[in-house]
Structure formats: C-alpha cells, structure tokens
Design goal:
Strand content: 5-15%
Helix content: 25-40%
Largest sheet: 4 strands, antiparallel
Order of helices and strands: HHEEEEEEEHHH
Number of domains: 1
Protein name: Phage protein
Radius of gyration: 22 Å
Structural class: alpha+beta
Number of strands: 7
Length: 224
C-alpha cells in the first residue's frame, strides 16, 4: 500500500512511542524532528544502493569539452542525479548487456560479448568517448507513493532510530536506541536484498590489464 509523508512519519513515531502528527509542518516536536530528518534518511538510503524504483534514463546534453586531450565528449549531468549507474547506447537497451558499468575494466571483455563504456565525472560534467551518450542514474527526489514497500519500511525504521532521542529526550533509553539502530539496519539489508533478488545486477569481477594481456585479451577493441 502506498504511503504519504505523514503516514511514513506517523509509523516511525508510533515506534518510539510518541503522539502522531496531522501534518509535517506542525509546530510539535514530533513533526519538527520528522521534517528535519526525513530527507536525509531518504538520501542516505538512495545513496547506499541503486534502487530499481529510483532509476531514470536520459540522453545527456553536450557541453564544452575542456578535457579534449583525454576524452572526445563532455556532457552535463542531470540536475536530479545522485549517482551514475551505466552509460548505454540506446534508451531501450539493457544496462550494457547485464553488467553495471563503472570507470573500470570488467570481465568478460568486448571480444566475448561485453563492452566497456568508460567515463569519468568532474563537477557537473561527465566525460566519455561515447557519442550521443545516454545515462542511467539514480535520483533522490522520489515521492513516498513511488517507494517499494520494503524501502518504505527501511525509511520508517531508520527514521524512528534517528528521531528517538530528539523526541523522547531524557525518557530515551540507550539500550532501546541501540535496538532501534539494529532493527533499522536489518530493514535496510532486507530491502536491498529484495531489490537485488527481483532485479539481479550481474556485476563482473575486475580484471587488471596485465592479467587480461596474459589471458590473450589485450587486443580487445574498447571504445575509449
């Protein structure tokens, strides 16, 4: 069931326990603390894992290339990006046949069906040798009604752990706070595992260039 922000906050508050709120902008302590911590909780979770529901894909806009000696093209990063996931050649393509592309060499090489699309990031730019680059990336501006239920549970448990002491003050019990931290950690791990099980990321192992040369793949044609 989809939740709104107030419902998310009230589920976290009920775990303390404390009084429920009617709006995120209430003047009560519970609302103030939820408002103060919710965005950072969501941002932290988004940064931990490339959640499937938080993925977006967009053609990148070309910008002035101030590193022509290293890269053929420069692009502006999307405003809403948290972290890049993969460069692809087509909007409808898979994330470069089943692998997560980062600025590293992964196995197998291009000669056996995979290819590296190398890139680097600097400030608000992405540099690569790929023309008409399309980037798959994660975002943080995601509304609660778009969250997967287990991600929502992770937000609730982590939020409860963060607002426990600020709201209860002297009534807060250190041992109970530790328990809430552990429950939150478990909820995060369950949500990540579920996302990986539903949408496997077949990340390949890194192979050093020297090892690749000894194995006879040094001549593979990489789009660098």
């Amino acid at each position: 069931m989809a939740r709104n922000i107030v419902q998310i906050c009230n589920e976290a508050i009920s775990d303390l326990p404390a009084h429920p709120i009617t709006g995120i902008d209430d003047n009560r302590t519970e609302a103030r603390e939820c408002n103060r911590h919710l965005n950072s909780v969501v941002a932290d979770l988004i940064g931990m894992h490339d959640w499937t529901f938080a993925r977006r894909r967009a053609a990148l806009a070309s910008v002035e290339n101030d590193r022509e000696g290293e890269w053929r093209y420069a692009y502006s990063l999307p405003d809403e990006i948290v972290s890049p996931i993969a460069l692809v050649r087509d909007v409808s393509a898979t994330s470069v046949p089943g692998i997560v592309v980062t600025p590293m060499l992964y196995w197998p090489l291009a000669s056996v069906g995979y290819e590296l699309i190398d890139y680097t990031l600097a400030d608000t730019k992405l540099y690569t040798n790929l023309e008409l680059a399309i980037l798959e990336y994660s975002i943080d501006a995601v509304q609660p009604n778009k969250w997967h239920p287990l991600f929502a549970q992770a937000v609730i448990r982590l939020l409860a752990a963060r607002i426990y002491r600020p709201i209860l003050g002297e009534k807060a019990d250190t041992q109970e706070w530790v328990v809430k931290q552990r429950v939150a950690e478990s909820a995060v791990n369950v949500a990540i595992a579920d996302d990986l099980n539903r949408y496997p990321r077949r990340r390949k192992e890194f192979v050093a260039e020297g090892v690749a040369a000894r194995l006879g793949y040094a001549g593979a044609a990489w789009p660098r």
